[in-house]
C-alpha cells in the first residue's frame, strides 16, 4: 500500500517536472499572461508582414492593366475625386472597364480614407486620370502602410478577442497551447502573402468575421450580427460564412422561450447595419441594382484560371462552359452549393454549440469554395480561417490544409514573383507548427492495435505521403521546367487536381465530424441558453 | 538524448531566424554591400601582393589578412555562380539578383559559426538561462539589422569570440587565447577586448610560480606570435607591412565616423560645434568645414573648427619607429 502511494507521488513529481521542463522553453513568453504573449507574438507577426511588404506586388511593372495593387490605388483615386453616387456608375470620369469597383460600399469607404492618407503624403498618387499606373517607391510605401495599419487595427484585435474568449472558456488550455494557437492565427502564410504581397485587404473582412465569431462564442449575438454584416458589406465573399451564422443563430433562437423575439432582434440589427452602410445607395432601386450588379459579375463565367474547386477540376472531363449556358450554370452551382451546405446547417439548427459553430463555418465556406460560381484561388483564405480557429482540435488536418492551400496559390504567387516569400513563410509556418514543446510537436496518441484498421491506416499514410512528395517535386518542376506545347497549363492543372482532391477529402471529413457532434449534444447546453 | 534534443531546439531557433533573414533579402543595403562584393573580386582576381595595394575602387581592403582569406574562400563559390560578381572592373556596383542573393545567403550561412559558438557556450548552462541566451543572441535584432540589412559579417566574427569564451569557461585557456588571436586577425576591432584577455590569461594561466608561469607565458606568447605570423607573414615577405597597417588603421579618416558612435568623443564634437556657433554669433570668423563628419573614405580630414584636433597616430608613428614592440603596444595606443 505504502509502495503504491510512493509510486503515485513519484509519478506525479515526474509529471510536474515534465510540465516544468516544457514550460521552461517558453516561460519567458507565457509567464505574464495571455495579453503579454499576444503582444510579443503580434509584434513578431508585424515584423514578418513588413518584411513581406518589401517584395513585389501583383502586376508590378506590367502595363496596361497591372494588377490588384493598381486596382486598389485606382479605387482610392475614384472615391477621393468623385461623389459617392458616381462610384459604381459608368461615366466619362469613371471607366468601369479599368478596374471598376466590384466590392460593396464598405470597401469604397475604406478606399476613401486610405486615399485621404495617400493624398496627404503624395497627391500625385491619387490624382484623377493622371495617376493611372503610378508606381513609385513612396507610393508603394504608403500603399503597404495602408494594409499594415488595417491589419494592426482590425485583424490583430479581433484575433486577441477570439483567443481571449476561446482560451478562457477552455479550462484545460495550457499556456503553451494558447501561445501556439495565437502564432498559428497571426502567422497564417496565405493571408500574409495575399494581403502584404499580392496586395489586398482581406484582413479587414476576415478580422470583422473573427470578431463576430468571438462575439458569438461569448454569447453577444447582436454584436456578432452587426460585425458580420459589416464584414459582408466589405467583401461579398464573406457570404461563404453566412449559412453557418444563420443556422447557428436560428438554432439558438429556437431554443429560447420566445424565438420570434430573438429572430426579430437579430433581423433588425442586420437590417439596421445594412441601412447605415448602404445608405447612399438606398434612395433608388437603380442605384442599389447598379451596385449589386457590380458585386456579382456572372458574365465572367463559372470559373476563371485554374482554381481547385469542383467546376474547374471536373472541366477536365466535362466541359461545363460548352454544355450549359451561364444562366443554367448559375442555377446548377447554386443548387450544388446549397445541397453541400445543408448538412452542417441542419446540424446547427438542431443542436447549436460553439464547437459546432466553428465546424459549421468551415463546412459552409468549403461548400462555397468547392461549388460556387466564379471562385478565385485567393478564396481558399475563407475556409482556412475557421480551420486555424480550430487548429487545437484538428491539429494534423489543419497542417495539411495549410500546405495544400498554399500550394493551390503557388502559380498565382509565381506570377507575382513572390517565390522567395512563399518558401520563407511556408518554412516559418511549418517551424512554428513544430515549435519545441508546442502543440504541433506533441506525439500522436497511440492507437489500439486493430489489424483491420492497420491496412486502411497504412494505405492512407502511403497515399498522403505519395501526394505530399509529388507536391514537393511539382514545386521544383513548376519553377524549372517548361510545360509541353500542346498543354501549356499542364502543371497548373496537376496542382489543381491534387489540391482539389485534398480539399474534397478534408471537407468530407469535417462534415462527418460536425454531423457526429449531434450525438454528443447535452441537455446542459439547453439549460444554459434559457 | 538531452543534448541531441537541445541541439535540435537550437537549430529550430536558427531556422526561424533564417526565415526572417530570407525575407529581408531585397531590403535596403548600405555601401558595405559593395565593399564586400569588391573584396570578393579583389581577392579573387589579384595575387596576395596586390590585395592591400590595389586602388581600383574607393573601397579598399581595411580588415586583417584572415578576413581577406575568408573573402577569397567565398569568392570561389561566387565565381561558380556568376563570374561577374568577382570581376574586378566589370563587377563594380554590380547589383544583379545573383550578387544580392549570393552575398545575403553567404551572411546567413556564416551565422552558423555564431550558432556553433552559442551552442558551445551554453552546453552546460541551466535550461532557463540557455533558452534566454539563445533567444537573445540567435534572434538579436541588432545583429539582424547590421548583418542582414546594412550588410556585414559580424555574426561570423562573434562566433569566434563566443567560441574563445567557451573554451576559457571550460578552463582551456591556451585554446581560448589562440582563438582570440585568430579573431584579431579577422577583425582588429576586437582588440578592444585584448586588455581583458591579457589580464585574465596572465592571472589565470600564467600566474603559477616563477618557472612554470614563465614557461606558460612563453607558450602563450609563441602561440599568439605564430597566429600573427601566419596572418601577416606573407605581407612581411612582400615588404608591404607598412601599407597593410595604413589600410587597417586609417587615422586620416578623422576622430569620428560619418555616423557618430555614442562614445565620449561625441561630447567633444558637440562642444566644438556649440563653441563655433556661439563664437560666430559674437562676430568671430570661424572656418567651419563643410560636411565634416560625413566622410567614410580614407582621406585627410580636420573636422574641428574651434577645439584642438585630436591626433593619435602622428606622435605614435615616431614612437613606433624608435621601438619595435608586439601587440602590447597596439593595445596602448588604442587606448590613448
TrEMBL record, chain B:
GO cellular component, one term: endoplasmic reticulum membrane
UniProt superkingdom: Eukaryota
Pathway field: Protein modification; protein glycosylation
UniProt GO molecular function: hexosyltransferase activity
Annotated TM spans: 12-29, 99-119, 131-151, 178-202, 214-237, 257-279
Main location: endoplasmic reticulum
Subcellular location, record wording: Endoplasmic reticulum membrane
Topology relative to the membrane: Multi-pass membrane protein
A matching Pfam family: Alg6_Alg8
Name of the top EC class for this enzyme: transferase
Sorted UniProt keywords: Endoplasmic reticulum, Glycosyltransferase, Membrane, Transferase, Transmembrane, Transmembrane helix
The EC number(s) this enzyme carries: 2.4.1.-
Family to which this protein belongs: Belongs to the ALG6/ALG8 glucosyltransferase family.
Name this protein carries in UniProt: Alpha-1,3-glucosyltransferase
Species this protein is from: Citrus sinensis
